[in-house]
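Run log, item B.
One chain of 466 residues. Sequence copied directly from the ordering sheet:
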Amino acid sequence: MIEEFPISQLDPRLVKQLEAADKACQTDSNYSTEIYSAILKQSIGCLELRKKLRALQLRMAQNSTKGFSGLLGKVTAAPFMLRGKSDKDPEGMLNKAEDLIAKSPGNVLAHQMLADAAANLGMMNTAVFAYETIRRIQPKDLRNLKDLGDAYLDAGDTESAIGIGGEIMKINPSDGDAEDLMKRASVAVAMNKGKWEESEDFRAQLKDEAEAQSLEQAAKAVTDSKGLEELIRQTYEKFEQEPENINHYKKLSDYYQRYGDLENAIAWIQEARKQEAGQADVSLEEKERQLTLEYFDQAIEQWETAYQTNPNDEGIRNSWEEALQNKKLFQRNQLEDLVQRYPNDYGYRYELGMILYEEKDFDGSLPHFQLAQRNAKVRLDAILHLGRAYSRKNFHDLAIEQFNILKTEIQVMDDRKKEAIYELGCCYESMGKKEKAIEEYKLVYSADISFRDVADKINSFYNSAA
């Protein structure tokens, strides 16, 4: 266990070095961070110094990225680390976390690593600080808010724990973990003060006493997340006993995914692929790809929500667009690699064709849509987009062939058939064959008057005829 202490308890010679570094902060930030970091490595329990170092690192990163949103790292190939491994060498993990943060202050996983290591060293206020830093970077991250609430409790700060519980419930009013956190914090307050009635607990934050009693009863039951935590713990114990059993890796990844911890879900799949039994398992590779896409979607959703809350924040809008672009880049790189390694997997070819089509690379998408027709699951969609690619290249006669195939083969007027017939009408219209075009539009109009702008086209036709 390592005791936490202020700067004033450092060796006076180190204090003088820090004072010199403080003065240089504005003129030579790199020098100051080097001094702070060097002294912190000698005195890892000095939380005041760690906070000073972090503030400077974040400020430098913010200036260099033109906005705090730029602190968030970019995912390119899911280079995730396993958390919860700091128990064997927590001090080494803590120093490693600081090294990673020095390279990228917005590395959330590094801050999580720091929190884990600090908790294992008994440095509970340092763990709190690590989670608070993540909260600054990702204020809506529910998983981190819950970790922060637990850390507050472990550090004895019950009022802050209750506040975090209330913050989580504002984001998700039905969050059972938040209710459980506030319950535990309330019990801790009551135990410290000796009287439940005098504690500033979650009862005061809920609407009425009946609701408070209902939540107390609900807290007695094991929540889904608590059950998953137990499953993770049990499976990890089995993994330690049988590290060569790849099923343990798969289960841990699945449990972490259900728990909402995608970083660990991906990390365990990556570890599974390193094992002898997993190196040739294509399903693991696909699982990792899907989890990484889910991770991207989660980040995109967070930025989109933040932008809706702050529509005038240019930095947030740029970060949202950047997250979308990063996902597309990852998808394209992955699919190009998969198509090269598995040229006869026509499902991958269809996905790559769609990426290229959305990027308006119609020439690039054509061969993939042509081959993707050999996969029965995506055949009709491949034909539809092959026709669209031809159409966007103004190869209308070739496009018409594809759309007519769908018009004939699809017996029910579903959305796909409506799309094909509408596109067929557009081709005829572009070719100047208005009578043929309107006949196709009529078919869609008869089935769905609200489909795209088909009603406007029909009305315009009859108005001009009149």
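Observations after the first pass:
- Confidence is low (pLDDT under 50) at residues 65-86, 193-200, 206-211, 213-223.
- The chain has three domains: 7-213, 222-280, 394-466.
Flagged for discussion on Thursday.
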